[in-house]
Structures are given as structure tokens and as C-alpha cells.
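Just wondering, can you check both lines?
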Amino acid sequence: MADQSISEARTPAAPEPREGAAAPTDREGISRRRLLGTAGATGLVLGAAGGAVGYAAAPAEATPLSSVGEGRAMFHGKHQPGITEGLPARGHLIAFDLAPGAGRKEAAALLRRWSDTARRLMAGEPSADGDTGVAQDAGPSSLTLTFGFGHSFFARTGLEKQRPAALDPLPDFSSDHLDKARSDGDLWVQIGAHDALVAFHALRAVQKDAGSAARVRWQMNGFNRSPGTTTRPMTARNLMGQIDGTRNPKSSESDFDQRIFVPANGAPAWMANGSYVVVRRIRMLLDDWEKLAVKEQEAVVGRRKSDGAPLSGGTETSEMDLEKTDSAGNLVVPINAHARITRPDQNGGAAMLRRPLSYHDGIDPDGVPDAGLLFVCWQADPLRGFVPVQRKLDRGDALTPFLRHEASGLYAVPGGAAENEYVGQRLLEG
């Protein structure tokens, strides 16, 4: 969980500029709505297991609260937004199935509508048709919208020959307790923002745009720590209280693109510069977890709870010494510790970029919290990223008894849309 399975980025974190995108401080083209939202700021702001992890780039200083609404991600670019940006404070995941009788033509029109709406909302502008006004006095708040295709989409649209082999259904895992109604789907949309109203506004716009072409299959809501809530950039904690996200791949690494994105000359051609995302709803059995003493929790994870440092010593980012023993000759990092099992060097270099959300969906009738992680991980090929790591976790991860995988999905997320292009156009019109 601390190394490879639950969280992703340091918080607060300024998004790194995407190729071909303006830097967040670029004031050109600022909408009237964005200016009004900034001018009206008072300084008050609303606020996995089973994959590979690390940390994302963080600014030298914490982002001032008054600037949160000004943050802007670019819709057009080499990659879709919502992949390499830092963790959003609020997020929504939603899957759709095409309506009976809808096919390739209707899907193309829908992706065109969604792309236009995403471009407008990410710029801090109202949607084109019947904007609800929910976020009219807010800035863009680093809003991102990301779109992907599920395995079933290709048969529904007559595009089976264009379906990537990497999109084959995930294998069954022993820890799965999957609800099929909350898994998979023809189309998948990810929404993230640093303001809850801005994120909800985008969710409502996406649902309205679907019209008669598609219907909601499932929808999930999540959150992360809000920017500006810590005195310095810090790795986020998950709902188990564990610092989580120390070893996420970094965009500064020479092989980052190779591990996370489909190459420009890869197959199929329409997936160039795209990525594959695995989405898992992972319930944390918090009542059981919180019965453990801190030392016992640390042994399960393999890291100190206070600062995220490996049990072998050092600081959060210190290399873990897997061979170190105590005075009795026992391994300091237990053989089944989550951090040991999920290390890339223990999994043939398997790596994923994780950008998850915590969730809390209320209290069950028996008083048990329905809470945990909306695990979202990105990779160039899930058969070399998520699958081998999850299989290894299945065989003996000490964290597994405290988790339940309740929903799952795998989606092909094409590269970013060029100017005057909509997401998926190269597939749907190719």
C-alpha cells in the first residue's frame, strides 16, 4: 500500500506542464468567469491496494490557498489530461453503456460533445448548452476530464478489429468480490478538480451530454487532501492513516513514457500516446485494521506509520534494505510486508502510475464504514503492469486480509486530442 498499491502523489502538488500545454501561470485567454472567481477569493477554499506506487513532483513551496481556483490544465495535448497531474482534491469516476440501437455514429457524436464540454469547462467557461451555473463563480480549479473505452465498446460499434490485445479482460484474483453492476462499461470518464462544486458541475455536464446515446452504468465519488492544508508538500495518507505514494514513477525518469504511455509507433495506431487504466473499488476493513497496534500495522505495510520510512531505517525516500535482520536474526521488513511484495525490482520492473481517490459511502446497518480506495493506475500495458503485481499480492500479501476488491474495470485511454479534434476521433473516424 505504501509503495505499490494505494496512493500516488505528494499533496499539494502543482501539475507539471504537459507537452504542448501552457504553464499554469500563463494568463493569456483567461475567461471572465475565471477572473471573477479569482477576484472574489477570500483565502478560504473548499477543500490500493493492488498496484505499483511512488511519488509525483511537488512545488518548492506549498501552493497559497488563494491560487487554487486559478489552476488550469490544458485539454489539447500529446496525452489526455488527468494522468500526470497531481492528485485532485475531489474526483468522480463514471461509466456508461451505449443505449440500445446506438453504435459508432452515436458514439462519435457523443465523444465530440464530451470533448467540447471538457475543453470549455477546463478553461473555466460554461458548457455550451444549458449550463447549470453550479460553478459560475469559480475558476477552473485544475479541472481535468479523461475519456476511455471498455472492452465491450468495440463490439457495440463494429470496431472489433481495432480492439487492442492489451484490453483483454483482467484475470480473476482470489481477493476479488466483484459486483458486476459496478464494473466495466462501454465508456469511462474520470473527473478531477480542486473544488467539489467544479467537479460536480463537470459530472452533471457529462451526464447531460450523454443524452439518449448512452446511459450510466455506475458512478463513484472520491477525495484527496486539499491543496494548502499542509505547511509543506507531503505524501498523502490513505484512510488507514498510512503515508502512501512514496515510489510512484516520476515523469523525470528516463523510462517514464515507455512504462506509462503507448509509443507513437505502437499498435493499434489510434492508441498512440495513450495509456491503459485499471480502476478498482477497494474497500478497507477499517474496524479490523484499527484493532492492530501501530507496530503491527507497520509490520503489515513494511514502513513506519509516522513518516513512511522503511522499517530498515532512513527517511521516506530511503532505499529499503530487504536483507536487514534484527538481533534475533529476523528480517526487519517481514517477508510478506506489502512494501516488500510490491517493489518494482521484486516484480520484473512492473510499474504503474497511480492517481487514486479515497472514498466514504456511509455506514452499513451493522455500523461498519463503507470506505476505502478508488484505485486508478496507468500503464503502457496492464499485462506487464497491474496483472503481475496483483497476482503476487494474491499469493501472500499481509495487507490482503484488511481489503476487499469490490469492483473492477480496464479501459483504453487514447492520446490527447489535437486542436479541432475530439478524443477518440482517430478510432471512430479512422
